[in-house]
Design goal:
The protein is α/β, with parallel strands linked by helices. It is built from eleven helices and 13 strands.
């Protein structure tokens, strides 16, 4: 559209305006899938020695876990830079659109802070950044639902309030095969007292309201972990029967299927999502991790 100025030009610009949703790759939904919905994904990075890969785009799935286990180098991760976010925010808001970014928990990564710095570099734009205080598929679901609200024409304030309600009521319960990965990467949080020999005990963990890893209990034997995870989620949801449910797993499709079956028997599942844990969260939790993520359906 060629515009010579005046109110017609302004109307032309703002006819295209909407709320554009941004998230980062540690939410673990495949970037191409989110992009097909209209969501922009800013990748974190995973490093093995001198090799670096963009999470989700250059390394994901079984290839990542094979490398994690076999590499001579301990994997490490790094957040996007403020400049990475600024480029995205500037491009998406150039037509007058508002931007809502939903990031990995600030207790686990500096990603949120990078996004905040980027927002401050564009003070004349409508940009909101929300610390999800969550990890993996939980805030991926938030981004998907936020995009659906944007598609319905909701305002930035309406969508941000909606995401904050979901965040404050979200429940995350997960188990890991070993605490070694959390410990070596410094993400053990309030679960440090679980370190040591577990003797066939499987640690069941959570993210607290501030997004830190916290211990719940040890469960003896793999066959008891999945039922207990569902029980704990039900306890934490305080009688909420109808939920939006997400199962995330780290190269453990059989166990994920069992968790899905058990969770669907324990809850009335209004909507179900499933994703494989990617390179960022997987670096810190290791293969075999299972996560049950739920939001009360009445909030949606």
């Amino acid at each position: 559209m060629i515009c010579l100025g005046g109110s017609d030009c302004e109307r032309g610009i703002y006819d295209m305006a909407q709320v554009k949703i941004v998230t980062d790759s540690a939410q673990d939904f495949e970037p191409k899938f989110l992009e097909s919905l209209g969501i922009t994904v800013v990748p974190l990075n995973v490093h093995f020695g001198d090799e670096s890969f963009k999470d989700g785009y250059e390394l994901r799935g079984k290839a990542f876990y094979e490398k994690l286990v076999s590499s001579a180098h301990i994997a490490r991760t790094s957040q996007p830079s403020p400049w990475d976010f600024e480029l995205v925010f500037d491009r998406l808001s150039a037509d007058g659109s508002a931007v809502l970014a939903i990031t990995l928990s600030s207790a686990l990564s500096g990603t949120y802070q990078s996004a905040i710095i980027a927002r401050q570099a564009l003070p004349d734009r409508q940009i909101e950044v929300i610390d999800s205080k969550c990890a993996s598929g939980m805030y991926g679901v938030m981004a998907i639902l936020a995009q659906e609200m944007s598609d319905e024409g909701k305002s930035l304030d309406e969508i941000a309030a909606f995401v904050n309600r979901m965040r404050d009521s979200a429940v995350t319960v997960f188990c890991v095969d070993t605490l070694d990965y959390l410990a070596r990467n410094g993400r053990i949080g309030k679960a440090a007292h679980f370190l040591g020999t577990l003797l066939n005990m499987k640690p069941v963990l959570s993210l607290d309201k501030e997004g830190y890893v916290t211990a719940i209990e040890r469960v003896r034997g793999k066959d008891k972990v999945i039922p207990r995870m569902v029980e704990i989620a039900k306890e934490r949801l305080a009688g909420e029967e109808e939920v939006y449910l997400c199962i995330s797993h780290a190269d453990a499709p059989r166990e994920a299927a069992l968790l899905k079956e058990r969770a669907q028997a324990g809850f009335s599942v209004t909507r179900f999502f499933e994703t494989e844990i990617g390179a960022i969260i997987g670096t810190h939790t290791g293969p075999g991790t299972l996560a049950l993520l739920a939001i009360p359906a009445r909030l949606i």
